[in-house]
Amino acid sequence: MNLVGITSRVILVLFALALQEGYSQELSNRINLTVQNKEVWFDTFVTGNKPELVNGREYFTAFNGATTNPFFGTLQPQKCQLWYDEQYYPEVNLLLDCYVDKLVLRQIDKGGLTVIIELDQNKVEKFILGEHLFKKINIDNPFTLLKGNNFYDVLYEGKKINLVAKRKKVSFNNQDNLKLEYRLEDEMYILYKGKFIPAKGTKGLLSLMGGRAPEAKVFMNSRKLPARKISDASLRELVIFCDSKIE
């Protein structure tokens, strides 16, 4: 029997076992590290969002419309801005459900599927969807039936007068397809001295002008602005003028 050959084989076996033990320990450490940090890693690097935004439950709409949806604006993915729990997030994919006045996060899960996640509405301060700035205005509004989370589309912020819109959708029965659908019914408001004033037309705004109301009417005539069924852009133009004149 070749003693040298046996000794060499024993040494090789022992060396292999030592390597395997070391590798197993290193692999175990890697696995533990991955298990402990996989959620943070996925949320931060794969989805681009912070864990505090994606730990809510999955969100579902009140009902599925055949040709409509409850969300504001486009359904195409867009990078939005969010101020949430005293933190600023410059690029997140948000949707505003105008049927229940709730902001939600659109997310890609680990399987590559799109899911919608509920945010903590109490932590939402403001957000930007497209070119629209929405703010939470915690002032009682007795004129709206949508008692949600007080999100308003801010169209103008002046020294004394603000113009805001409640982006609201309601349900109706579509007689063409016999389905329940969503319909947009925006509500316009003047915010003055901490109170909401309905702005379906110009009457409420002109009432604030007091003795300077004739000036506002002259401005309306010069700009050919209608007194009723006024567009958002025209109403904003009039609000800017009144804000510069109101005492």
Characterization of this structure:
- The chain is of the alpha+beta class and 247 residues long.
- The protein folds into 2 domains: 3-46; 52-199, no CATH class.
- The chain is 30% helix and 30% strand.
- It has 4 helices and 13 strands.
- It has helices at residues 3-46, 203-207, 213-223, 232-245, and strands at residues 80-84, 87-92, 94-97, 102-108, 114-118, 124-129, 132-136, 151-157, 161-166, 169-174, 179-184, 187-192, 195-198.
- The strands form 3 sheets. The protein has an 8-stranded antiparallel sheet with strand order 2-1-6-7-8-9-12-13, covered by helices on one side.
- The N and C termini lie far apart (113 Å).
Strand line-up in the sheet with most strands = 2-1-6-7-8-9-12-13
| Low-confidence segments | 17-47
Shape: globular
Mean pLDDT: 82
Q: Give a count of the beta strands, DSSP E runs of length 2 or more.
A: 13
Computed CA radius of gyration, to the nearest angstrom: 29 Å
Overall structural domain count: 2
Please state the structural category.
alpha+beta
- Per DSSP, the total helix count is 4
Calculate the terminal CA-CA distance, rounded to whole Å.
113 Å
* Percentage of residues in helical conformation: 25-40%
Query: How much strand content do the residues show?
Result: 25-35%
Order of helices and strands: HEEEEEEEEEEEEEHHH
The largest sheet is:
8 strands, antiparallel
List keywords for this structure.
247 residues, 2 domains, eight-stranded antiparallel sheet, three-stranded antiparallel sheet, 4 helices, globular
